[in-house]
Amino acid sequence: MVQHLPVLLREVIEMFSLYEGCHYLDATFGGGGHTRALLERDPSSKVTVLDCDPEAYSRAVEMSKEYENRLTCYNLNFDRLEEIPEQKFDGIIFDLGVSSYQLDTAARGFSFHRKAPLDMRIDPRKSVTAAEFLKISTREELIEAVRDFGEEKQWRKVVDAILKARGNGAIKVTTELAEMVSKAINTGFGRGRKSQIHPATKTFQGIRIALNKELNKLKVSLPQAFKKLNSRGILIVISFHSLEDRIVKRYFNRMAGRPEHRGDSLPKQLRTSQATLLTTRPLRPSQKEKNNNIRSRSARLRALQKDYSPTPI
Ligand SMILES: C[S@@+](CC[C@H](N)C(=O)[O-])C[C@H]1O[C@@H](n2cnc3c(N)ncnc32)[C@H](O)[C@@H]1O
Fold first, then answer.
1. CA 39, CA 294: separation in Å to the nearest integer?
2. What atom in ligand 1 is closest to the CA of residue 78?
3. Predicted pLDDT at 313
4. 152-156, 184-188, 308-312: which range is least confident on average?
5. Model pLDDT, residue 257
6. Which DSSP string corresponds to 15-56?
7. Which residues line ligand 1 (CB under 6 A)?
């Protein structure tokens, strides 16, 4: 049976342990691991949850029956979180990416280990599938996906192979794409001493990020989340690769009145601080957690606390 193990759960719960009766927003419900722990820790707490995947939303609705009047669910993309009627939260969490439910369900087309139509949509009601994306994208869009979002060093070979395969009938199946990428970059995977990471890993990641516009959605949703925080409320983001983490780090630095990055030369007097960093460096899972849950190995948690203000910001 598919199960999703919540990542950095103890750390999230400890950071959110402000006082009794808090109202939290879980912007990425998934399997509800973080939500359940928050509801269990304090019987007077409430959680509002979002997920753009209708299957995750159904799981949330099921869970809400166990916690009468304490769990409210929306089948909504987090880039529209400003639209929910709840005005303020004491804690907001984003646990980015996809869940084990999505990765391990072959038909969702996220995994190169499982033969299935190449889909990869987090919200299956939206946009084109990954197969269609590979068929209709320009060379520049493919480069952005593979080189910029996948951080694949051999992006030229992969993009050329995709464009060539288009001429012979589109790539429609996960395993076909994985095989094509393996052939194109030939890392010696499975032949002993070279990389044991599947050669299609980065390309799959890049296509998924491009298709679901994951970085843009994160960028626009962070200020919306910050607005919805109560004074002294805490925003936690768990990311799984450096591109997401960079967006979070820069936004958090800006809100804390710090330079966003090394090249940021804005004079100090022009910066305003509305929050305090609770993590100057991201928290990483312990070795024990990484051993128990391989998907946690790249997780990074950053947290920010909105400063006290007598009139809400
Ligand atoms: C890593 S899982 C969250 C797991 C969850 N914290 C748990 O403990 O079970 C990420 C979830 O976020 C959802 N998601 C990803 N991008 C989203 C977006 N832009 N808007 C809303 N939900 C999103 C996915 O559908 C997935 O269910």
1. 26
2. 20
3. 54
4. 308-312
5. 94
6. HH-SSTT-EEEES--TT-HHHHHHHHH-TT-EEEEE-SSHHH
7. 4, 6, 28, 30-34, 50-53, 56, 77-79, 95, 97-99, 122, 217
52 Cα–ligand 1 center, Å:
8
223 shares its domain with 91:
yes
Instruction: Please indicate, yes or no, if residue 240 is contained in any of the structural domains.
Output: yes
Final residue of a domain: which of 184, 211, 238?
211
pLDDT band, very low/low/confident/very high, at 264 (cuts 50, 70, 90)? confident
- Say how many Å lie between the CA of residue 158 and the centre of ligand 1: 28
Q: Which residue has the tokens 């060379």?
A: 139
Last residue of a domain, one of 181, 211, 241: 211
Q: Do 161 and 302 fall within a single domain?
A: no
| Number of domains observed in the structure of the chain | 2
Q: Are residues 192 and 268 in the same domain?
A: no
Task: Please check whether residue 136 is in contact with residue 128, taking contact to mean a CB–CB distance below 8 angstroms.
Answer: yes
pLDDT in tens, 141-157: 999 999 999 999 999 99
Residue nearest to atom 20 of ligand 1 (CA): 77
Question: Ligand 1 centroid to 222 CA: how many Å?
Answer: 15
pLDDT of 244 > 60? The answer is yes
**What value, to the nearest 5°, has the Cα angle with vertex 79 and ends 216 and 68?**
145
Same domain, 220 and 255: yes
Q: How far is the CA of 255 from the centre of ligand 1 (A)?
A: 24
Tell me the residue range of the domain where 188 lies. 128-211
Pick the closest to residue 80 from 184, 183, 217 (CA basis).
217
Read off the CATH number of the domain in which 179 is found: 1.10.150.170
Query: 28 CA to middle of ligand 1, Å?
Result: 4
Ligand 1: nearest atom to the Cα of 218:
19
Q: Which helix (H) or strand (E) holds 189?
A: none
